[in-house]
Structure formats: C-alpha cells, structure tokens
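To whoever is on call:

I kicked off a structure prediction for a single chain this morning and the downstream step that reads the tokens threw a length-mismatch warning. I double-checked the sequence; it's 616 residues and nothing unusual in it as far as I can see. Pasting both halves so you can look.
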Amino acid sequence: MFSIKKSLIGLLALMGTTIISAEEQQIAFISDVHFHDVYGDFKGDFEGLKSEKTGKYATIRTMDSQMNSTRLFNENYFAFIAVLDDLVKKDIKYIVLPGDFSDDGQEVHIEGLKKIMDDYANKYGLKFYITFGNHDPVMPMTINNGKINYLGTNGKEQAIFSKGSKIKEKDGVNPIIFSEIVKEQGYEDIIKQINSFGLVPEKEDLYWETPFSKYSYNQYTFKKGLEASSSRNRKYSISYEGSGDKLGNKKFEIIDGSYLVEPTKGLWLLAIDSNVYVPTEDGKEFTPASNAGYNKVLTHKKHLINWVKKVAKEAEEKGKTLVTFSHYPMIDFYNGSSEEVESIFGKGKFELRRVPTDEVAKTFADAGIKLHFGGHMHFNDTGVKKNENGNFLVNVQVPSIAAYVPAYKLLSINNKKGEATIETVRIDEVPRFNELFEHYEKEYVQLKKSGAKNIWNKDILKSKSYKEFANWHIQELVRLRFLPKDWPEDIKINIIPMSGKDIFNLLAVGNEKNAKEILEKNGVTLINLEKWNGTDLITDLYRFRNAGNLALNDVSDERLKGYTAIYELSLNNKIEENEVVSRVKTLFSILNKFINDYPDTNFVIDLKSGNLNVIK
C-alpha cells in the first residue's frame, strides 16, 4: 500500500542533518554529474554569451535542450560546486563519481571539471575516485562530433562541432562553429587528460591494481602500479559473439578502466568499468554502451567477474573493507514491476532495456560483492538480492545531481557492528543556480518570434531554488517529451483527460459500497480527487520512479491518500474485459511499487545478513 509515514524519511534528508557520528569515516557518492563547463575555454573558437550582470562569457546549451533531456546541462555546474562545498563543511574527504562525470567526454568540459576537482583537492584535501559511464566515453575511441544546441547570439541555437563531423547548416540558426575541443574523446585521451582521480595510482596509495596487474598485494610498488595503469597494459579482447570462451574471429582490443585502490589502511575501493561496447556483426562499428550494462558484462566482459571474485576473496582474507562502485545498476530498479511496465509501453521501452537480469545480481552476490553503488538511471533506489546459498548483494542507486531529485549519497561503514549506514542528501539550495537565466530570457523571445511550437514554460525562470528548478524540469520533461513521445495513444485519449474523481468512479462501478468504505478509511473525498488529473498522475509516476521516497516532499499528503484509495479500490475491481479499467489498474500497481520498496533514503545495512533498517 502507499505509505504516508515514509514522508518522514524524505524530510530527514531535506533537513540536511548528518546522521552519522563525526568519528566514523565517510565516503560521498556523486553520480551522473554530466559536467558541462558553462564558462569553458573554447580556445578562441567560441566566445560565448556575455552577461550584462557579471561580464562573464557563458558557453551553455539552450533551455529548450534541457527541458527535452533527462538531464540538465548547465545548472548542474553550480550544483556540483555546491555539493563539494557541503562536503568540505562536513569534513568528508573521500568522494566517488560513479560514471557520467562528463557529458560526452569533450576536452573542453573535462578540462573544466578537472580544474574544479584539482582546486578542491589542493585546498581542502579532497580525494576523488571516478569510473567511466556511457557518456565518458561515448565510444571506446575518440570520434568527431559536437552539439547542435549550444545557445548562441540573438537567442538562437549554435551548433559547435569538430571538423569531420557529419553536420549540415540549418536555416534559422547561427552558422556552425568548428572546434577540435568538442570531439568525443575515447578511453585513452580521457585517461591521459585526467591522469588522476583513481584512474592511475598516487604515491600515497597503499595499493592499486587493475584486472590485468601481474603483482600481488605484498609485491606492490608505486612504480609497478604506474606501469599497470598504462593504457597499453589494461586492454581486453571482445567480439560480436562475446569474450573469453565465446570470442569470435573479428576481435578488438579495448581499454578497461577498472581499478582497485587502497587510499587508506583497510579501505578498498573497487571501481568497475562496466561499459560494454559490443562490435557490430560486420566489425565496422561499436554499439553504444548505454543499454548494455551488466547484462553484457556477463557475456562480453567476462574477465571482470573472475577479477571481482579474486578481489572480494582477498579483501575478506586480509580484513579489508570493500566498497564497490560502477556506472550501471546490478539489480532490477523497477521493484518487480517490469512485466507491468512492458504491458503498458512494450518490450524494451521505458528504460526496460537497461534493467539487469536476475542472473546479474546472482552472479555478483556469489562473487562476494555485498554492497554496490551505481548510477546511470538518475534514480534514487535500493535493491536487494539474496541467493539460496546465503550470499547477498545490496545495490544502492545514486541519484543524479543533474536531474529530479538532485541528491548525493553518504556511506559510513562500522566494522565493529558490521553495518553500513546510507544517508541521502537532497540538493535543494544552490548558490548562483539562476546565474544564466538572463540568457534564457533571450532564447525564449527568439523562440516566440520564430513561431516555435511546444516552447518551455517561462515560469521556470521564476524558480527561487535549485529544488524548484529541478521540479520544473521533471514537469516540463513529461509535458514536452515523455507524454507526447513515449505513452500509448489509448492512455493519452482515455486516461490523461480524466480527473482523479473520474478514475475512482470508473473503478467503483458495481462496487459502490466498498468504494465508499475505502474513501472513508483513507480520509479522502471526491472533491479531493477532483483536484488532479491524468497528467498529474503521470508526472507523479515519473517523480516516484526517479526519486523514490525523496519525491514525497513534492506530492501532497492529500493526493497520496487519493492514490492509496484508488489503488485499494483497483485491487477489489474484478472487471477484466474493460481495457481502460485494466490500464488504470496496471498504472496504479506500478505506482504503488515505485513508492513502496526497500528503504531508499536513510537506512542501515546489516553486512552479515543483507537486511535493511530505516533510520527514523
């Protein structure tokens, strides 16, 4: 059932209180930063837009592109800085970025990201550890590309591409600018440019290795670690058919960015590069890694499984605390609703291609991984897998700071108690988040002038906080993209126009007595239900899918009680032949599962049993 009590959990995160005692060592996880340098140095190729307030030149993407994307491109720049400032105040030194630290691996934006991270490392002693996501790199090798939707002069779109890109001039926008620093870099160039943050060993590290290292723990030296970190020494073979015993004749050598590091005595951070770029059958191209995830790791990156087993076994033997992170989830993030989701959207739709199979969770639980932090989905979620042999895996999905609800995770492990404490911190207040709004004003004027359809709502520029801005983002994303492009026509025609009252009455046919009792039990009236419609329902469905219990702060108790009443009524509705009724029942079943699952905000994990307990 829908639980109003869970709203207390979300409020704890809102208050920004650190639950864990100051004596305990903590690790922060900031996922899917999608860093875009809004004041990037384009080496003279693109000056940017001069601010009338600050005099700075902004190199940003359009608001239109943001409102049609699952991530923000610009304001997350300020959010990243705000999170780092918060971690400095909390005296947290270890910071993990589980992939998509950049937004397509362009030199100009990685340069800006590295500058900020180096600055905080030098000033405050922060230690950063990153792993790769599908946006860094987009392809295993560097490719020519760019973006069509930078914001240029006169509020118009500005395309910026590297030479050799397949791009043509378009009417009504500014002429194309060519710049080599927007190439989408591959592994070798990204590692070379960053050259730190866990990807290569530091002198003070106690240990560092890759899946291909030839030395043991006792044999380790910094010199050996540096040699092992070289791109030429961290490659694996892959083919269209698979890897290992399934390797075909047309094989390719690709860099694997995985590593294990011991930054301080007793702590092992295991970074798994779970990107899999499967070659096409003709061997001429690679498929993107975005939908591959761990399903393809099992078949096309098999060496990682044996390596993870070895690391987990050694960690236990040596008494090390093992913390594992990667970009992709290891456990189904749809809380058992995948079949219902497929019945609404179709096979592979609504991110179903990204759902890991149960075999993934079983394999890594048996490999010895008990706690894993993933990103990619921009979801706040927790999954648990317990195998019959007693092995278990807890998968913590870290929200993106560039999407709804922006937040990061804090981990503290108490080895004496055998417990891991997870705290989720919302990013509600971000200094300077509205610094770029003056440029969007001009974009909006141009869009209206050009007669563009489906323009973003200008009221977003009235946002008083980053929290409000992110909430606008999910609303506009649903209105401009998700509803028009992803939802079946019958739902758009039959359910979207309905009010909550209409939906309740539809389910109450032939069951009026029970319907009245459900309303009374939940403290709901038909007047309450009339206040929201199908669009509100769908928007809230995305809220809870993305944010879990963090979304409780943005959905009123009154509406949540209404959802509860309708869900309970749907369980008593036995009408099978009515397609609209069937669709409504499925939607509310999915919504119920998105809201009610394992704790996803503030909780404690028993590392001996895999049991979770909410922090109240």
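Update from on-call: the warning came from a stale cache, not from the record. Cleared it. Sanity check on the structure: The longest helix spans residues 466-486.
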